[in-house]
Amino acid sequence: MAKHTIVLIPGDGIGPEVTGAARRVLEASGLSVEWVELPAGATALEQGFDTVLPEGTLAAIKAHKIALKGPVTTPIGKGFKSVNVQLRQKLNLYAAVRPVRNLPGIKTRFHGIDMVIVRENTEGLYSGIENEIVPGVVTSMKVASEAACMRIARYGFRYATRRHRRKITVFHKANIMKLTDGLFLNCARRIYEEEYPNIEYEEVIIDAGCMKLVQNPEKMDVLLMENLYGDLVSDLCAGLVGGLGVVPGSNIGDDAAVFEAVHGSAPELAGKGLANPLAVIMSGVMMMRHLHEDVLADKVKNAYNAVLEEADKTKLTRDLGGSAGTEAFADAVIARMR
Ligand code: NAD
Predict the structure, then answer these.
(1) Domains and CATH numbers, the chain
(2) At residue 8, does pLDDT exceed 90?
(3) Measured in angstroms, how far is the CA atom of residue 45 from the centroid of ligand 1?
(4) Nearest alpha-carbon partner for 83 in 258, 280, 311
(5) Distance CA 177, CA 305 (A)
(6) Strand-pair partners of 117
(7) Residue 119 CA to ligand 1 centre (angstroms)
(8) What is each CA distance from 110 to 137, 215, 220, 299, in whole angstroms?
(9) What is the model's pLDDT at position 283?
(10) Host H or E run for residue 32
(11) Using N-to-C axis directions, what is the helix angle for 326-337 and 294-310, rounded to 10°?
């Protein structure tokens, strides 16, 4: 079996705990891997770097083309530019792909949820262009370029078609942001009409879309949207299927891919060994598929599904109603693979 070299960024807060547990689970599947562990976020500053995204970390991801990343803490207000925004822009990780599904044994208000959020990851309101015009008046620039809108639309339609999904829904606010969201919408419509006319396609204004999501989420399939909306809707959707502990994600570009959970560094849980590592484990499964290690990916997936299905509270973390810690859940998944 080929040995994979994967950059591991433990991150901040619960990051080292959940990535550590995920690493053990992935290794237990038989994945042949050499981890290149490097810092980012507050951890990098603590280690003496003068930046939250050290050049060596960025260079390693460029060289090895793949990373598993824990969450990083982004201080509110002035200071360093977000690690995530920098990584996505500098590595051109233009598509965030976040599958949201009901999982076995996790009781929620809804059944049959199986959707995928495809989020434009490099521009929109997260372009980081903010100005103080005069004291007391500040602006934030929402950027939309035709190239990036076409690229994410094409990615979303290609993803949906390859995975035999039935429908693409574009969330937008083009009624108000006529130029930026108008361009995003027009690009999606063009790709649909010119390249993928056979898939079901709908356009929904995002406020109404959020209502639909909490009324009939099972009717949604692939959701395509710009950066900020994708960020917000991801957490909303996580809440539909059991919370942030169970939703994985990937940031995909043409030259590199970074896999990470949707959740953040959950500072209030940090260092307590209580966080759920499942979202990072699931992100690891997405990463293994990216590496064409489907057999091993299935092995991990079947193991965590079995643990969830069993619904033994001593093996589930607190966010899922159990009493297990981070490592105990990972142990239970590993035991299922033996
Ligand atoms: P958060 O996702 O860290 O936490 C939101 C809620 O979900 C909290 O109640 C937390 O306890 C819970 N939660 C999150 N992950 C969990 C897990 N694995 N197991 C159990 N419960 C979990 O969001 P926040 O509190 O808004 O943000 C905290 C910090 O994380 C901020 O600095 C934010 O900027 C950062 N953040 C980073 C990323 C990333 O690096 N990808 C993503 C989102 C937020």
Answers:
(1) 1-98+244-338 (3.40.718.10), 109-241 (3.40.718.10)
(2) yes
(3) 20
(4) 258
(5) 42
(6) 98, 223
(7) 19
(8) 43, 9, 12, 27
(9) 98
(10) none
(11) 120
Dihedrals φ, ψ of 13, to 5°?
Answer: 55, -125
Q: Whose CA is nearest to atom 42 of ligand 1?
A: 264
| 8 Å CB contact between 154 and 174 | no
Summarize pLDDT for 56-88 with one digit per residue, the tens: 999 999 999 999 999 999 877 767 788 999 999
Q: Are the beta carbons of 264 and 71 closer than 8 angstroms?
A: yes
Q: 201 CA distance to ligand 1 centroid (A)?
A: 32
Burial class (CB in 10 A: 0-12, 13-18, 19+), 198: exposed
> How far apart (Å, rounded) are the C-alpha atoms in residues 95 and 86?
14
Pocket lining: 44 vs ligand 1, CB cutoff 6 Å: no
Asked whether 223 and 118 are in contact (CB, 8 A), the reply is yes
169's tokens: 């829904």
Backbone torsion region of residue 115, taken as left when φ is above 0, otherwise alpha when ψ lies between -120 and 50, otherwise beta: beta
Residue showing tokens 């643990």: 307
Closest atom, ligand 1, to C-alpha of 14: 18
> Average pLDDT, stretch 22-48?
97
SS3 of the chain: helix, strand, coil, percent, to 5: 45, 20, 35
Q: How far apart are CA 51 and CA 212, in angstroms?
A: 41
Pairwise CA distance, residues 32 & 288, whole Å: 11
CA distance 118 to 98: 7
Residue 333 near residue 300 (C-beta atoms within 8 A): yes
Query: pTM score, two decimals?
Result: 0.97
Cα gap 210→205, rounded to integer Å: 9
| Residue 275 in tokens | 């966080």
Partner residues linked to 253 by β-bridges? none
Beta strands at 114-120 and 95-101: parallel, antiparallel or unpaired: antiparallel
**Closest alpha carbon to 97 in 115, 113, 71:** 115
Nearest residue (CA) to ligand 1, atom 4: 266
Q: Which SS3 state, helix, strand or coil, does residue 320 take?
A: helix
